[in-house]
User: What shape does this take?
Amino acid sequence: MENSASKAAVREKPPAAAWIIIGLVTAITALALALTAAFVRQRETVGALESMYKKSYYDTADELGNLEVKLSKILVSGSSAQQARLAAEIWKQSGETQINLAQLPIDEQAITRALKFVNQLGDYSGYLNNRIQNGGGLAAEDEENLEMLYERCRQINISLAALSEAMSRDYKFTAHIDRDKLGKGGGALNDSFSGVENNSVDYPKMIYDGPFSDGLDSKVYKLLERLEKRGADEGAAWVKEKLGAETVTFYGPAGGDLLTYEYGAAIPGGAEYYVQLTQNGLKPHMIACGATVNGTRISEEKARLIAEQTASELMDCELKAVWICASDGIAYVNLAPEENGVTYYPDLIKVKIAMDYGGLIGLEANSFLMNHTERTLPAARLSEAEARARVSKKIKIESSRLALIPRPGDKEALAYEFSGTHRGHRYIVCVCALTGEELDIMRVVETAGRGSMLE
Assistant: This one.
């Protein structure tokens, strides 16, 4: 009996080959489930990315369409009050457009040109608003500039209209985020902005964005030449640590003249950031935040201190504010390194601080990445007093500093910078510290909301 049961048990035990087959089936099933889950997660991630790109695209298209309409209106308006109102609206809306533009998957060269165009459009409109309100009116040169800006805007919108038609035929942004292809002009979205030209407006010799805000025109990123390439995972960790992000999404690498990694970051409180870090050294090239600013609760001085501390930490370099203006609850601050009493204007960084809660909502460091390097400066041959004597006696000088300033042809010059007034206007005069030559003179546009020089 016992023997029979034992034999039955032996007969019921599957052979070794059967266990192997069962194990393989189980492993294959588990692998299939894992691959399915991974595919679903990937599809969900791509879907979320596609949704974000589409939202930013439609918002950008709407804003650029509105900007074109307002530009056309200001060109035909015969009312100074109406022109001033339209100019103010263009200035404000240009800032909103930049945030959405920065989140689109566009090649580095095209996005830089597009952002510069929108930034110049906003700055020029702000200047016109100020001048019209002070009884200046539009000159023939202003109308020419506005016509040029309108035409640029119209051409972009024509391209975007063609892309909108393609999107109705199931165009996918995520199918065109191969950065190598984008860098060579691939993708309809990239093509829409690739034709935007630099230097759209020939500005009068005045300041709109702080002294020497355009810096040098070199396409060589000197700071990055001596830094090693880092990984995308390290970049994500940098974003999480520096911005205090709860979640970080890696969008991918970006090509062009500057190799970067692009990220999305969500921080406590609901604010979302777009971050662009250089692949060499993980230095921030651009940071944008779409947070809504509600009023003003901190002073310009407090915003300046926050900007200096935040930018210095992010760039790992001691930076000092050289220009600040505040409008609609946002402080726009330009900063530059200062060493041994010399301010380095070519290495400029621009930041935006929300004046309700004191947070960083924007950073652009292109000039800093291009120009920040070790330099051996010549000794000044003129004293401050000798250089001061070269400034027109009509200007009442109120402050001075020694500065390195950008010059045409990607050159730099050591100069004394004098700030003073004449007939109610503020001027900045730069006198070469080696030859005594007057290298540059700028008039500061000072209005309630457009800023003043930090002295």
